[in-house]
Specification:
The protein is of the alpha/beta class and about 130 residues long. It has five helices and five strands. The chain has a single domain, classed as Response regulator (Rossmann fold, 3-Layer(aba) Sandwich), CATH 3.40.50. Strand 4, helix 4 and strand 5 form a beta-alpha-beta unit.
Amino acid sequence: MEKVKPETDSLVFVVDDDPVITSLVSARLETSGYRVRTFAYGEDCIAALNENPDLIILDFYFLKQGEVPMNGMAAYDEISRLAPEVPVIMLSAQEKGEVVLEFARKGIADYVIKDTELIDNLQMAVKDLLER
């Protein structure tokens, strides 16, 4: 298999508690030349903000055995307070208009629905945001 020439060295954080999602997303982004760091929870991502990511892909809803982790909106609020220059793409199965509107009001750079087109739609959103 021929190696793909990296298009970029941008660092992308992928934050999702589903290892299948993080694996698929990170594999696709790495193939496109992005450096990727994955986290299962928003708290872990926030703790690593000193690595200066160029973009964060953040899940909206997290589950954790025996605990109540920070949800994506709360994580976004903290990320935007600590690193307001870093764009965030929110991932969610949420299709409710009021939830999507709240994402927009908060200033989230993009919103990608977790559906059968997730990987392709996310790759387009990442490329658009990092190549502006």
